[in-house]
Structures
1.
Amino acid sequence: MRWNRAGWVALIGLASAVASAAGEADAKWPAIVPRSAEFVVNSASSDIVDWVIENTHADALYRVRCRGPGEDAGFTFSGDWECRLVPVHEKARYSSLFLHDPAATRDWQSRARFFAEQMTEPCSAIDGYGRTRSFRLRGMKISLEVVEPVTKKNHIVGTREQRAVLHGFRFRMRVENDPSAAGEIAEPIPAPRLRTDQAACAQFMWPKP
């Protein structure tokens, strides 16, 4: 097959268009400034942690808010400690970007919710549901970690029973660029295979294994 000048120009134009489209896909989400922080939480039921993720121009892109149970800015925080991730300059389509299911119907349906029972064995050994949780989305990876947790007994509402609740701890957050994380909300992780002694841990997990 012979190619004339027009044919080569068309081929080069097509290749450029494909390369441009690939570049746009790679640049769908802006790069962020990698950073980490540690906070001292003295009381999970009353303390609030706010953290901002910035782009390379020092503009705020996302805001992370973590706190104990309660209503806050239209979001219902639950568990012993929960984190919410929202964009700063765009209209949010989801109550939190930590959600992994676009069809989620409740604010708590994410892995960004922590319970005291998940801080110790056997539950703490379940990958993705223990003291450290990682989330991949929007060209970045965000890690949340509870360090040196202290629990206390609390009455279960409507009963005479008590359960241990997460009380004080150090809380670490880290964010780094991850170009392979292309989703708008957090990627789902593989369902863990629970050992026999971890069966009771399922009640504190979402999605249920």
2.
Amino acid sequence: MTSLTEGMTTLELHLNSEKEAIVQELMELWSDMKRSFQREELCDSKQNGMQVRLIVTDGSWELHTGDVQFETTHEGFWGSGELNYDLEESEVVETMESLASELISGVLDEEAEADLDSYWQ
């Protein structure tokens, strides 16, 4: 019988154990965004809210928001997505769970690419 965690990287195990905390922080960021900004300040034909990034360095994670061109952190693995301004209250939990999974997946994809890059060097 195989374990459900067999074949998972240490980072994947760690982020999966932190997913609930990531979801909670995403929900707080969404609430702050709705309180602090009018829709017109954030949304246009290309964007429906605020950019968000999950950045993982040395086993710890942070969520950063705003335009990526102003990002000051250039280390670690990143997953990126968007906090949608137009969510209904009833959609927030499910949407943030999905967004957390998307961000974690992006981080793990970057980790896998880095492992492949180091293999070929």
